[in-house]
Design brief:
Elements lengths: L4 E6 L4 E8 L3 E9 L1 H5 L6 H23 L8 E7 L3 H18 L6 E2 H12 L7 E6 L4 E8 L2 E7 L5 H11 L6 H9 L21 H13 L5 H27 L3 E5 L6 H8 L7 E3 L10 H13 L17
Parallel strand pairs: 1-4, 4-5, 6-9, 9-10
Antiparallel strand pairs: 1-2, 2-3, 6-7, 7-8
The structure holds adenosine-5'-triphosphate (ATP) and magnesium ion.
């Protein structure tokens, strides 16, 4: 069978990324142009600045992705941009570029949901992984338990009622003075501390999550006890949110009868979370987690998800619009 090459285009937040992926599983190129340095001084992503930088980067990043893959536009079978969820101005840059390209080179346009991309990062890392499985999606904007029934068929079993877990990590980092982006910095500092501070866990009757309570508890503790050990606070926060994630994940595995779990999204790069989830293997659960570089935003995962949309027959027209709150 002929190989299928998808050109993934990702611009939903502060990474401009373009990738070429073969048959949904093999990365031929994955160029990621991060704007972290630009947004660092503002303590978070400034949407207007992100959009402008995507415009500046998108042609250069695409050219490099084709060069790295040693192909030209003619070799591509489908152009697969992220069209949501994300920042509307940022999404529009990658999507408009993809639409113009699709028109100019006469190749199919196939829109991708960014969350579907985070799930697909696992298909690149593990060639043997196939649905059905349970996915715990933990990222900057989302926290969801997803029953992945097929490559393009999903059921959301639980989600956060307030903050996404990545937001909570970033907020904790900011209040203890670690700066942006906070997740990796909390991860690093936590290694020097003890998880000896009791923090509140929120229990909800179903598979939903809530992180605003623990976030507020950390803010208040840090405010009321300015000399509190920051490393202990980070370690305690990390341990408590991980317990919340594991409790709901176990319940979801039990409810669905699934024995395969994949995690995904930027927070799945967290070393403590990765270690704790691997322990589920002792309970007869097969645990998958993407390569570190595929956890945070990148276009290879989008090209992989785009491949599965393409082979299922999904095609979009040039009126495809960015959808900031797109659901799976
Ligand atoms: N080692 C880590 N530990 C904890 N959090 C981390 C780590 N590395 C990255 N993160 C967090 O991951 C988030 C970024 O993930 P990602 O790039 O998937 O988010 P996003 O694309 O902004 O959101 P979404 O995918 O929901 O649209 C940030 O909140 C960041 O702090
Ligand atoms: Mg993301």
């Amino acid at each position: 069978m002929k190989d299928i090459l998808t050109l993934g285009i990702e611009s939903s937040c502060d990474e401009t990324s373009v990738a070429v992926v073969k048959n949904g599983r093999e990365i031929l190129s994955n160029v990621i142009d991060s704007q972290i340095k630009i947004h660092e001084k503002y303590g978070g992503v400034v949407p207007e600045i992100a959009s402008r930088n995507h415009i500046e980067a998108i042609s250069r990043v695409t050219k490099k992705a084709l060069e790295d893959a040693r192909i030209n536009f003619n070799d591509i079978d489908a152009i697969t941009p992220t069209y949501g969820p994300g920042l509307v101005g940022a999404l529009l840059v990658g999507l408009s570029y993809a639409k113009a390209l699709s028109f100019a080179i006469n190749k199919p346009l196939v829109g991708v949901n960014h969350i579907q991309g985070h799930i697909a990062a696992n298909y690149i890392t593990y060639k043997e992984l196939e649905p059905p499985f349970l996915c715990l999606l933990i990222s900057g904007g989302n926290t969801q338990l997803i029953h992945v029934k097929d490559y393009t068929e999903f059921e959301i079993l639980g989600k956060t009622r307030d903050d996404a877990i990545g937001e909570a990590f970033d907020k904790v980092a900011r209040v203890v003075g670690l700066g942006y982006p906070g997740g990796p910095k909390v991860d690093k500092l936590a290694k020097e501390g003890q998880a000896n501070i009791e923090l509140p866990k929120t229990h909800i009757d179903n598979l939903d999550f809530s992180f605003s309570g623990i976030k507020t508890a950390v803010i208040n503790l840090n405010h009321n006890k300015p000399d509190i050990n920051k490393a202990d606070l980070c370690a305690s926060f990390q341990k408590t949110v991980t317990e919340m994630l594991i409790e709901n994940t176990k319940m979801a595995l039990k409810q669905t009868g699934l024995k395969t779990l994949a995690i995904g999204g930027g927070v799945s790069a967290n070393s403590y979370i990765r270690n704790e989830f691997l322990k589920l293997e002792q309970e007869n659960i097969k645990v998958y987690m993407p390569d570190m570089k595929l956890c945070t935003d990148n276009a290879a995962m989008i090209a992989s998800a785009g491949y599965y949309n393409f082979v299922q027959g999904k095609r979009d027209k040039l009126d495809l619009n960015a959808v900031p709150n797109l659901k799976l």
